[in-house]
Amino acid sequence: MAMAEEQGFSEEVFGFHTQQAVEKSLKGWLSDHDIVYPRRHTLHTLTQQLAENGCELPTGFHALLCLRTRK
């Protein structure tokens, strides 16, 4: 499996896919609570919407919020 190999993927590629996974999980969580979310990719915006609707992020999830899309 290429992801397990040291030279498998560049940090940029790995970071992009990790950010996408976090974004999709947040959007899935919002959808599960019938919360309409904007067509944006900002993790902060999505987590803010969850918080405003009484949803609390799991403790370990906070470390993933530093990921962001490239501009």
- Return the string of H and E elements: HH
Shape: elongated
The span between the termini is 30 Å
Low confidence ranges = none
* Count of strand segments: 0
Q: Largest sheet, described in full? A: none
Q: How would you explain this protein's 3D organization?
A:
The protein starts with 10 loop residues before the first helix and ends in a 19-residue tail after the last helix. The protein has 2 helices and no strands. It has a domain at 13-55. 4% of the residues are buried. The chain is mostly helical and 71 residues long. It has helices spanning 11-32, 43-52.
Give descriptors for this structure.
mainly alpha, 71 residues, 0% strand
Quick description:
With 71 residues, the protein is mostly helical. The chain is built from two helices and no strands. The radius of gyration is 14 Å and the shape is elongated.
List the helices and strands and how they pair.
Layout: H1 11-32, H2 43-52
